[in-house]
Amino acid sequence: MKILVSVKRVVDYNVKVRVKPDGSGVDTANVKMSMNPFDEIAVEEAVRLKEKGVATEIVAVSCGLAASQETLRTALALGADRAILVETDADLQPLAVAKLLQAVAGKEQPQVIILGKQAIDDDSNQTGQMLAALLGWPQATSASKVGLADARRRSSARWTAGSRPSSRRCRW
After folding, report:
1. What is the pLDDT of residues 81-95, one digit of tens each?
2. Distance from C-alpha of 91 to C-alpha of 33, rounded to nearest angstrom
3. In 3D, which of 51, 46, 143, 93 has the Cα closest to residue 60?
């Protein structure tokens, strides 16, 4: 089973961000960048699934500037088998990223796509839901644990809402 994992290059979570003098956005000049922490968790979950023998290949994908190669190298160091960079200078919004990931999924034919629950730069939490809709796939959002049973084509996701744990199963 092939797993596609999306990873985003963001300002490191330890850096105090500064607004540009003209107020047009965040000043990223000479600022440490890193992989979005929630995407790092997604890569780690994919690696766990591979270690259990459920997955056979993990492909990390990033959309953005050439500097995103550093983020992809981090994903490879965490255990991804391959990395794909969709290089663009455009300022990508969630729908554009979802469409790019849809195109990559069309070529790579993964059985599962894992995204971090949100990016720490815009906190939009939209790309995963948009991608699922574009692909016509089921989705589980904000999952804290993922389980896949390949032979029966079933998956389960577990998350905590408030103090009550919950889990759901779906066919894929």
Report:
1. 999 999 999 989 999
2. 16
3. 46
